[in-house]
Amino acid sequence: VSIAQTTDRAGRLVNLLGETGVDLMLVTDLVNVRYLTGYTGSNGLALLGPQTRVFVTDFRYVEQAAEQVDQSFTRYQAPLELIDSLADVLPDGELRLGFEPANVSVALHARLRELLPNRVTLVGAEDLVERLRAVKEPEEIGRIREATKLADAALEQVLAAGLIGRTEREVALALLDTMYRLGADRPGFESIVAAGPQGALPHATARDVPIGRGELVVIDWGAELDGYCSDCTRTLAAGGPGEEARSIYAIVLEAQLAGVQAVRAGVGGREVDATARQVIKAAGHVEHFGHGLGHGVGLAIHEGPRLSQRSEAVLEAGNVVTVEPGIYLPGQFGVRIEDLVVVTDDGCEILTSLSKELTVVG
Ligand code: ZN
Ligand code: ZN
Q1: Could you tell me the distance, in angstroms and rounded to a whole number, from the CA of residue 96 to the centre of ligand 2?
Q2: Residue 1's pLDDT is what?
């Protein structure tokens, strides 16, 4: 059986090479290297073709690579600048060598051209590994489910101590600490804890400012566990919220439920976005929802497929995506509600277990 006929991750990548006119793929994006080989270090590259599976790292990672890298790969040790050794591990003959344009700078491309013999043609081959990564294996979904459970439990523990009077940074730090205590590798990203007007900034950073009574608090956080990320947002009320806050919250929740309802294999990412956006538009707030509805989550916190007005993705069973509409009223407050869901043939499974009703925390 030739390597090309296997259906493991590397085999599936090789099956995609034919349609791009690439003989051999150079993978330099470290998340993609991890996905294909299992290697988690900070310096490594992989070369894959119908008869080639090569992994290259430097002396610092030789032992780690021996433990982590799939046995189907031949491992090489190279000097720190791995690319300098590339010519030594290439097969003979004319070669169309694919590279990842999103991960290869103009400088690196020039260096490659200089190092490689003329028989090698460099071909930009976009998003090949990313396409594979977008459709999760059952084991990957299991890991994302566990990361989500951990993050959900962390928020519940942090909220048990209340919100009013704690600073945004204290709450963010408590979330971080609790996620580590519950066994996370690390946070999936820097937590957002944004109270009152700060919540109107979709990517606010936590401040040394106490959360006031009556403020809405947007909390967006996630855990990384066994390499896989979770992503969730809840908007909580620190004490009783006002009428306007309640009505905006109700609109966002309706949009979020409509979005989740629209998720199904075969539906376009643009369509799902439009379904949720329509609810916000009908309520007169479309200009206050400036970002896409959602994104894929996996080894990276933001990956394919996208749910947005410009998305060309068609959802497939096994995609894991967020559904996260928001309304942001400058100078007043913001509301965002985000769940993580697994796309199935007839709908989706919601991984997030936390209530989406407006919850008042003292
Ligand atoms: Zn998020
Ligand atoms: Zn998100």
Answers
A1: 37
A2: 43
CA dist 261 → 4, 312, 346 (Å):
39, 19, 10
Q: Which of 256, 240, 239, 226 is CA-nearest to residue 339?
A: 256
Q: Using an 8 Å Cβ cutoff, are 359 and 234 in contact?
A: yes
Give alpha helix (H) positions in the chain.
Answer: 9-20, 30-37, 62-68, 86-89, 106-115, 128-134, 138-159, 168-181, 243-262, 269-282
Collect all residues with Cβ–Cβ distance below 8 Å to 107 and sequence separation of at least 6: none
pTM over 0.70, yes/no: yes
- For position 7, what pLDDT does the model report? 85
318 C-alpha vs ligand 2 centroid, how far in Å?
18
Task: Give the contacts of 282 (CB within 8 A, at least 6 positions apart).
Answer: none
Q: How far is the CA of 88 from the centre of ligand 1 (A)?
A: 43
pLDDT, tens digit, for every residue of 147-189? 999 999 999 999 999 999 999 999 999 999 999 999 999 999 9
Residue 278 token pair: 């329509």
Which residue numbers in the chain have pLDDT < 70? Answer: 1-6
Q: How many whole angstroms separate alpha carbon 322 and alpha carbon 6?
A: 31
CA of 338 to the centre of ligand 1 (A): 6
Ligand nearest to the CA of 234: 1
Ligand nearest to the CA of 232: 1
